[in-house]
Amino acid sequence: MTVYLIYIVVLAAVAFHAAVRLRHELQMMQQNSYRAERYGRWLRGDIFAPERVTDLLMLGVATGFSATRWGLYAVGAVGLLALYKAVRELRTKYKKPLVFTPRATRLYVVALVLTAAALAGVFLGAGVRMSTLAAMGAVVLAPVILCVALMLLMPVEAAVNRWYVNDARRILRSMPRLTVIGITGSYGKTSTKNYLYRILSERFSVVMTPASYNTTLGVVRTVREQLKPYTEVFIVEMGAKQAGDIAEICELVQPTIGIITAVGEQHLESFGSIENVQRTKFELIDALPADGVAILNDDFEPIASRPVTNVSRVMRYTSRDVDPAPFETRLVGRHNLTNIYAAWLAGRALGMSDSEMRYAVGQIEQVEHRLSIRRTAGGVTIIDDAFNSNPVGAAMAMEVLAGFGGATGAADGRRIVVTPGMIELGARQEELNRELGRQMAAACDIAVVVGEHNREAIVAGLSDGGFDAGAIHTAATFADASAWLGGVLRAGDTVLYENDLPDTFK
Description:
By secondary structure, this protein is an alpha/beta fold. The chain has three domains: 2-152, no CATH class; 176-362, UDP-N-acetylmuramoyl-L-alanine:D-glutamate ligase; 372-505, Protein-Tyrosine Phosphatase, Chain A. 53% of the residues lie in helices and 11% in strands. The protein is globular and about 85 Å long.
């Protein structure tokens, strides 16, 4: 009887671990937009992670010793370790924690039911010892279980999504005077969206898609939750992971003004070529009506070379148009001037006066994590450019950093870069991160390279730039980098945090 109770306790511990492991897999599935193919790509890179290897070893130990006189001890040890791992996972802080949306809740419940049904079947058919081994197997197979649940729920999710989309269409049809402005680009779209919101709010009642709500369902949610009968302008940020994503959003919201901020090499891994990026971004412009307005950043050759003939008004701009700028701003970074100018042109297209817009631009605050600057109580300047780094933005950030103290500037402090480099750049990832290292060599006094994804390329670039090898520090995580910085920072130093990879790139 005592042995049976021990097995019951161990079964409960391992089943708890399986539930927590499913929760973690759900979190990663959510960060991959619930797309099985994207989740699969991430999983292939994570398959030999220590957590997975130890789970597999635990299953092997429990199975190998189950029929021996040491079986009870082995299973007991596995149960304790499973409980420890589950509690540790629940205490882990993630940059982008799991959000139990209705969809995530449905997926988790179905995955749990599948797991519980399998364990109950083994328990009733083969007893408690085998069900304990099956629970450990469920931990190892958590990704498979989650994908099966995803597949089973596909008809349900499709029906739910159709209802939400149709409801959003109903709301938009009830607002025939609403002006919709679409904004897309390889980068700069979120900043431009925020700047445009501030400018237009001087005259209009404006709603914009919040945070990173730049997918069809994110736009649908914004329409259903935030649009009011008196809303005059709806600013829609449009992101894309594949061809057709932007066209789908445009078909829903019917924009009359479209802004493309950039066509660059970010997300080359997803699109394969710059031509595919160009075609996908221009889905916004192609969807505009004949009396629409296209606002295009000709600093980028794929934009400048793309003719636009389907609209009556095309407003092209470059960084030269803002030198000197027709406005004053507290923001740093030359790229912010062109982002503001795109918003300026949209305001002009809607009939706003320069004086109205000039006042609004003067009130704009930096968008969080996009070259935002603050000073600590200890006299250290922090430049936070941690959101979604790209080659152009990273170069601009180095330019901003070079204007602060350091060995080649003022003598009152050192310039420090903390970065894991850039991702999703396809075949050019090594080349572009090496170039980032060369830019860092010209801009900073201390380089902190985080993680292993781009370490070799960045360090090679630093070496190309003649950077002192003794001033290069490597860290496994941002937490390790922060701990190291805590022991070396002093008043007058400036720290640039350039990019912060998502949890799926840990």
